[in-house]
Each structure stands twice: as structure tokens, then as C-alpha cells.
Design goal:
Elements (H helix, E strand, L loop, with lengths): L2 E6 L4 H12 L3 E8 L18 E5 L9 H7 L4 E4 L5 H4 L4 H22 L5 E4 L17 H10 L1
Amino acid sequence: MGMKLIVVGATGLVGSEVIRLALRNPSVTSVVAIARKPVPAPTNAGPEAQTSKLQSVVLTNWTDPYPEDVIRHIRDADACIWALGVTPTQSKDMDFAAVTTICHDYTLNALTNMTAHARNPFRFIYTSGVAAERDQAKTPPFLADYLLMRVCVE
């Protein structure tokens, strides 16, 4: 039996590469890309990619319970790779409350929605960043609020 994989943040650098590799992997039988806009199959996936495995799901409200048309795609998923977030560079030009909503609230809401409908066990991989400080008692030398918030989500 193959894996049904959810990819969130599918239009970004990490998410698009995850989709490209998943479409080439015969062990992955279904790739559900959740994003704010439709996600096309990557043009650089190669001839061995099975682009028919890709299902693009548009989600417009990331903080409310997911609608049934999204839940339908989540149902029976085996794993999620969460690559949605605000980069440190982007965060410098944004209100920190908006950054927290995207990086923290969207993620926790997704976990609630996904674990209610996905397989058990459900694997959730959260990509936060190499500089995120795991020890909440330490203050990082730069972007302290951002880096501590990212680890809080972990």
C-alpha cells in the first residue's frame, strides 16, 4: 500500500521540491498540495514523474475548521510535510502578529483538522529553520521573537 502525502506550502521553494520528488517516488501514491492558489505539477519533475498523483486543494481560511471539500482530500492521509511559513527575511517587513498567525496559528489549526481525519499514526513534519533556538530560556542573538516562536510551534 502506498503513501498519501499532504504538502502544505506547496508553492514555495521547499514545498515545490517536495512535490517534485513525491511525484517521482513510486511509494507515494497520492500527493495533496494545499495552498492559497492552485498548484500545478512542476515542469521540472522529469519524465518518470506521475503527475496524475497530484491533487491541488485551495484553502482560503487557514484559521477556521477546514471545509468539507478540504477534509475530503485529507481523509486517510499518512503524512504531511508542512513547508508553509514566513521566512526570516520576510518577517522583518511584517507585523509580528501576522507572522505569528501564519507560522503558529495556521500550523496548530492544521494539526487539529488533519489529525481528526487522517490515518493513525499520522506523521507531521514541520520545517522551521536551522537557527531556531530549541532552549526557550536562551535568547537568540538575532530575530529572537521569530526564532523562539518557530520552536514553540515545534
